[in-house]
């Protein structure tokens, strides 16, 4: 019997979400399923706001940032009453399963809805790469490339003016974007929530380099550290170098997805539909040892993710 599935995007948007939606839609149709696109995350489910998808609904979106299904946060879904209403709406629509593209919060909603009897599959969609069960999240590569390009530009002007550029990158409470981008731009220091830092030592390293003729610096700070202005002022006060702070902000969430994001999103979307086809729910699709796999949602939410200690160490040893 042909199944009916839904797909939604939830939480912060990420480049590559469209590629995942496209893959879910096309894979579902190819398997003879009916596919609904649920708009604005769980809000669309509760309000009955959805579109009936065909192959053309997802034409021309693979190269576009953002999400064609829109995204939102839905506070009602945090309560069991909201989830039960979600189950009722799924029954009304005849949904046999939903693919939820988002982060940890969205997966909690997916687990709750699965527990009510609607098989849900989570796909990791966030620029932060902070989802423990997967080595990779959709949007991460594009966001890092965007941040890298912007910092390259900041470096040009910092160099011309003999300045220090302190750049805050996104990542919520995680420093994965920060450490990788810092390595990619050749930053002199990187400050992340995962590692202790010593501003006096950073400033001393800079002062030593100044004596040896270096005149401009880049310091990458993860937003989760929460002290970009303080760090900027301290560096300026201790070193005497003119120091400017730049917060890259939401620009990191936009833009055309990279090859990596498009391909991984496509593979993950396809895998999610294969699971739903078998009636399997309550799983998160992720990447492990560079291969697509799936894992129980509760297990996924309880996993711990290691930080990039090796890269952090390399950065420390090659910064000057
Ligand atoms: P992300 O999915 O990127 O982590 P949020 O944490 O904002 O983003 O969660 C997105 C949505 O997922 C929330 O607005 C809510 O609808 C749902 N959600 C979040 N946490 C829970 C929870 N504990 N139980 C059920 N649903 C949740
Ligand atoms: O999770 C993605 C992300 O962009 C984080 O890097 C950032 O902390 C947060 O979302 C910002 O959320 P909002 O768009 O609600 O300001």
Query: What do we call the CATH topology of the largest domain?
Result: Rossmann fold
What is the helix/strand order?
EHEHEHEHEHEHEHEHEHEEHH
Largest sheet: spatial strand order: 3-2-1-4-5-10-11
Small molecules (ligands, ions, cofactors) in the structure:
adenosine-5'-diphosphate, 6-O-phosphono-beta-D-fructofuranose
Summed over residues and divided by their number, the pLDDT gives a mean of 97
Count of distinct structural domains: 2
* Distance, first to last CA: 64 Å
- Mind telling me which CATH architecture of the largest domain this is? 3-Layer(aba) Sandwich
Fraction of helical residues: 40-55%
The CATH class of the largest domain is identified as Alpha Beta
Q: Runs with pLDDT <50, length 5+? A: none
Note the overall shape: elongated
Structural class: alpha/beta
For the sheet with most strands, the description reads: 7 strands, mixed
List strands and helices in order, with pairings.
Layout: E1 4-9, H1 17-30, E2 34-38, H2 42-47, E3 50-53, H3 80-93, E4 97-102, H4 104-115, E5 120-124, H5 140-161, E6 164-169, H6 176-185, E7 189-191, H7 199-211, E8 217-222, H8 228-239, E9 243-247, H9 259-277, E10 283-288, E11 291-296, H10 297-302, H11 309-318
Parallel strand pairs: 1-2, 1-4, 4-5, 5-10, 6-8, 6-9, 7-8
Antiparallel strand pairs: 2-3, 10-11
Helix pairs in contact: 1-9, 5-6, 6-11, 7-8
The protein binds adenosine-5'-diphosphate (ADP) and 6-O-phosphono-beta-D-fructofuranose (F6P).
């Amino acid at each position: 019997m042909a199944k009916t599935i839904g797909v939604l995007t939830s939480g912060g948007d990420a480049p590559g979400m469209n590629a995942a939606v496209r893959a879910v839609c096309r894979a579902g149709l190819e398997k003879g399923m009916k596919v609904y696109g649920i708009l604005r995350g769980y809000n669309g489910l509760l309000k009955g706001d959805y579109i009936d998808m065909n192959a053309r609904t997802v034409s021309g979106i693979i190269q576009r940032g953002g999400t064609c299904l829109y995204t939102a946060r839905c506070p009602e879904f945090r309560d069991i009453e909201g989830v039960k209403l979600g189950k009722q709406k799924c029954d009304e629509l005849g949904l046999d399963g939903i693919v939820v593209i988002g982060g940890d919060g969205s997966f909690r909603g997916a687990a709750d809805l699965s527990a009510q009897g609607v098989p849900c599959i989570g796909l990791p969609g966030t620029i932060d790469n902070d989802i423990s069960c997967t080595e990779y999240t959709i949007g991460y590569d594009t966001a890092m490339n965007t941040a890298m390009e912007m910092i390259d530009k900041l470096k040009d002007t910092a160099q011309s003016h003999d300045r220090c550029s302190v750049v805050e990158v996104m990542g919520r409470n995680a420093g994965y974007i920060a450490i990788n981008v810092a390595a990619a731009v050749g930053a002199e220091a990187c400050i992340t929530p995962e590692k202790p830092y010593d501003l006096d030592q950073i400033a001393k390293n800079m002062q030593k380099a100044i004596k040896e003729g270096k005149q401009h610096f880049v310091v990458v700070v993860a937003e989760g550290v929460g002290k970009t202005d303080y760090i900027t002022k301290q560096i300026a006060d201790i070193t005497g170098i003119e120091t400017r702070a730049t917060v890259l902000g939401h620009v990191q969430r936009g833009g055309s997805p990279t090859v990596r994001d498009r391909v991984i999103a496509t593979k993950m979307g396809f895998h999610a539909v294969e699971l739903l086809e078998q009636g399997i729910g309550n799983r998160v699709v992720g990447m492990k040892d560079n291969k697509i796999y799936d894992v129980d949602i509760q297990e996924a939410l309880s996993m711990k993710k290691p930080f990039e200690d090796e890269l952090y160490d390399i950065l420390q040893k090659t910064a000057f």
